[in-house]
Recover the amino acids of this structure.
C-alpha cells in the first residue's frame, strides 16, 4: 500500500516552504541592513549603487591627494613667513650698521643669517615636496576621479650658494627674474643701503609668491570641501538604493512568524485526517 501526501497537506507544506524562504530573506536584510545585497536581489539598483560607491571611493583617494597638497603649501607658507622674519632681522642689522662702530660683528651676524635663509628654504619641504626651493618644483593636484581636472601649483627657488656667498631667489612663472642678496659689505652707507635694497626686493617677491600660494591653497580647500559633499551625496544615493527599512523588515518578520505558526497548525490538522486510518486497526 502506498501512503501519499494528501492535497491539503501538500498545500500546507508548500505554504510553509514559501514562508521559510521569505523568513530567510528577511533575516538576511535584518542582519545586513540592506534589502539589496547582490545582483540577484535587484540587478538595476545593485549595479547603480556599486557605481555610486566606486566613484565615492575614487574621489576619497583624490581627496587624500588634496589634503597632502594643502599640507605641502602650508609648509611652504610657514617657510616663507620665517624667511621673511630672518630678512627683517638682517635688515635691522644693516640699519644698525649705519650708526655703529662695530661693523665687523654686524657683518658676521648678517652673513650667518644669510646662510640660515637658504637652510630655512631647504627645510620647508613636506612629503618630499618643496615649493620654495628647487629649479623645477611644483605640484599638480587632481580633483575628479579620472584625474582630468587639475590645478598646477608652481613653486619658486630661493637658495644659498656657498661659492658666491649669496642668496638667489627666482620667482615662479615665465620670465621671472632672479634677485640676489650678497654677503655683507658695511664699509659705507652706500653699500649698506644697497644691502637693504636687496632685502626689500626679496621680501617683496616673497610676498608676491605667498599670495600666489594662498590663492592656490584657497582653491584646493574649496575643491576638497566640494569633494567631501560629493562623496556624501554618492554614498547616500547608494544607500537609498540598497538599504532596508528596518522597521518594515521587523514587522515582516513578526508577520512571517505568525504565518509559520498558523501553517504548522494547519499542517497538523491536515495530517489528522490521514492518521484516522490507524483507528481501523
Amino acid at each position: 500500500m502506498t501512503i501519499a501526501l494528501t492535497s491539503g497537506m501538500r498545500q500546507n507544506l508548500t505554504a510553509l516552504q514559501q514562508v521559510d524562504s521569505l523568513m530567510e530573506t528577511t533575516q538576511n536584510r535584518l542582519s545586513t541592513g540592506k534589502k539589496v545585497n547582490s545582483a540577484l536581489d535587484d540587478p538595476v539598483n545593485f549595479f547603480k549603487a556599486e557605481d555610486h560607491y566606486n566613484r565615492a571611493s575614487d574621489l576619497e583617494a583624490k581627496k587624500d591627494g588634496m589634503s597632502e597638497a594643502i599640507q605641502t603649501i602650508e609648509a611652504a607658507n610657514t617657510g616663507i613667513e620665517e624667511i621673511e622674519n630672518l630678512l627683517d632681522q638682517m635688515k635691522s642689522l644693516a640699519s644698525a650698521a649705519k650708526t655703529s662702530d662695530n661693523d665687523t660683528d654686524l657683518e658676521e651676524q648678517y652673513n650667518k643669517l644669510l646662510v640660515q635663509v637658504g637652510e630655512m628654504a631647504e627645510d620647508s619641504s613636506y612629503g618630499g615636496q618643496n615649493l620654495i626651493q628647487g629649479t623645477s618644483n611644483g605640484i599638480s593636484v587632481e580633483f575628479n576621479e579620472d584625474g582630468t581636472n587639475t590645478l598646477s601649483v608652481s613653486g619658486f627657488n630661493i637658495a644659498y650658494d656657498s661659492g658666491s656667498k649669496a642668496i638667489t631667489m627666482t620667482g615662479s612663472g615665465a620670465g621671472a627674474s632672479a634677485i640676489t642678496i650678497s654677503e655683507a659689505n658695511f664699509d659705507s652707507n652706500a653699500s649698506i643701503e644697497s644691502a637693504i635694497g636687496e632685502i626689500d626686493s626679496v621680501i617683496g617677491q616673497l610676498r608676491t609668491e605667498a599670495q600666489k600660494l594662498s590663492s592656490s591653497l584657497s582653491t584646493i580647500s574649496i575643491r576638497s570641501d566640494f569633494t567631501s559633499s560629493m562623496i556624501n551625496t554618492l554614498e547616500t544615493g547608494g544607500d537609498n538604493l540598497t538599504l532596508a527599512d528596518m522597521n518594515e523588515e521587523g514587522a515582516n518578520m513578526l508577520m512571517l512568524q505568525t504565518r509559520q505558526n498558523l501553517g504548522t497548525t494547519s499542517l497538523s490538522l491536515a495530517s489528522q485526517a490521514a492518521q484516522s486510518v490507524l483507528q481501523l486497526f
Summary: The chain has two domains: 7-34+253-280, 59-241. The first strand starts at residue 138 and ends at 142. The radius of gyration is 38 Å. The chain has a mean pLDDT of 91.
